[in-house]
Protein: Polyketide cyclase/dehydrase
Amino acid sequence: MPHIERTITVPGGDLDSIWAYLADFTTTEEWDPPTRSTRRVQGDGGVGTTYHNVSTFLGKETEATYTVAAHEPPRRLELEGEASSMRLHDTITVEQQGADVVVTYRAEFHPQGAAKLATPLLPAGLKVLGDSAAQQMEECLRRRFSPS
Structure:
């Protein structure tokens, strides 16, 4: 299954603050480059909460509905996504390592129907996507949560 996984470090970051920020999936508008908008449709952020996301990937605008599948403060958030031709599974883990906070983001892509034919083309696009998302997430989290 095609996927991306990146780990970033937030020097001197506060675990609980970083968790609260990332667990609010609407913040993808700030740290996920392809995201154009994310809004909470229903729920309180916990398991069962749904989000509507609009993203652009490989030049195409895509709408997806994400549902929180696991919400384990302040450590792990998992979301299951459904788009027209893709199932998605995102996992965000947050952990304290000494004075720093380490965030790992993993996104799995499961093409459906005719989109399966494009599976061989995904790795190149996903590498670029993963690298840009990691860079933007790191810049965003450091700006917000690292001591000056």
